[in-house]
Specification:
Blueprint: H1 8-16, E1 24-29, H2 36-52, E2 55-60, H3 65-77, E3 84-88, H4 94-100, E4 107-111, H5 117-124, E5 133-137, H6 141-155, E6 165-171, H7 177-191, E7 196-203, H8 208-221, E8 225-230, H9 233-245, E9 255-259, H10 263-270, E10 276-279, E11 290-298, E12 305-313
Parallel strand pairs: 1-2, 1-3, 3-4, 4-5, 6-7, 6-8, 8-9, 9-10
Antiparallel strand pairs: 10-11, 11-12
Helix pairs in contact: 6-7, 8-9
Amino acid sequence: MLKLLCGVLLALTMVVGPCAQAASVLFLNPGTTREAFWVSYSQFMQAAAKDLGMDLRIEYSDRNAEITLAQAREALQGPHRPDYLVFVNEQYIAPEILRLAHGSGVKLFIVNNALTPDQMRLLGARPDKYPGWVGSLVPNDEEGGYLMLKELIRLHPPVAPGQYIDLLAFSGLKITPSAQLREKGMRRALAEHPEVRLRQLVYGGWTRERAYEQAKMLFRRYPQTSLIWSANDEMGFGVMRAFEESGGKPGKDALFGTINNSPAALHALLDNRLSVLLGGHFSLGAGRWYSCVTTMRASTSASTVVVIGRFRCYS
């Protein structure tokens, strides 16, 4: 099945063509070894690399941009250079890595967070300046943020004219393109539903603990909140913990939506604590992006669960 996925590793094999020696690839993973999303991301890449006969090495940076840049500098200017460097434009580091790669002979491929429009405009004047940059493969994050809120609103009971549905939103890092795009999609859905009132949006830094601390304060400030939008599952679980500590029941007193189909998120979906889940982009490093929006609701029978799902593929 992995051979059918038209993704990064497969694209790289097509670029180098048949050769006697396996192409070497270094992936600079911006996450930590404790994050289910980034671990599954690496595992999927490793499976694809094995299937395609490629030499893949992965280094984590624990969400520290300085560590990522140091790793890139060693890979691009050190004695043991890979054939390809795959990385994420987390915290806008891509231009610096492109600069470091000049004259290295290493090919570059960007995943998940590509160059921003501003960065592209700056590079546009000199398209030949970075000949080693092969391309990018990213999810449609804006559509993901939009679909999540649309589905949450659809599941929420209707309100009487003149009444509002209170929403809290938890985004990632302000300087991460994927967080910006997911937030943009959320705001697009919000503009279509004047009955929904965004009480506050905060930046949880993609972490469970920070979102938990923020949510404790926000639930005291906005006790009528009944929709929670979070840009990843780690933050979603932190918010859920704070909601439960305030006496609320997720899935009943408030509907939660998030991104990343980690085992914990899938279990929360089965337990009806989580109402909307988007995922599948863990396969991006080795395959094409797909988005799955799934909702699970108990029917009139307490032991029956109705599953409603739809899959969409984006280029």
